[in-house]
Design goal:
The strands form 2 sheets. The protein has a 3-stranded antiparallel beta sheet. By secondary structure, it is mainly alpha-helical. Helix 6 crosses helix 7. A hairpin with a 2-residue loop joins strand 2 and strand 3.
Amino acid sequence: MPGAAFQLDTLMLHSGDAQAILDGGIDLSPEALARTTVIRLKDAEKSLAVCPRDVQALIRKGKLARCGAGVSEASVQAVAKQFISTRELGRLTSVNPFDVSLLARKRGLTRLWPRVGIWDRAAALAAFGDLVGPAD
């Protein structure tokens, strides 16, 4: 029923989720919640070119919004705009993904989180700009 209040005695959130809500990074309006599309974790992995461990890290960091057994498609799209995976960076630059971290370190680029194959997209593209081929 529209406009009805919902009261909880206790609501527990991961600190990353709570901060994302406070920062306005997660739209909790009824309109947004009604149009939330949920995708499977496997589809998020494929879309972001990451491994399951990276998806779980992005969920823990509050970057991917968990919805039941999946994540919201909008949060996957937001992550794709803000971050780039080691695999995608390797594909764009024709550098073997196993060598991306070493080359990144030589170019002054550091991972956002230890042992997570995610980089800030703008910083990574700037650091590897000379290796990025023309857009298809």
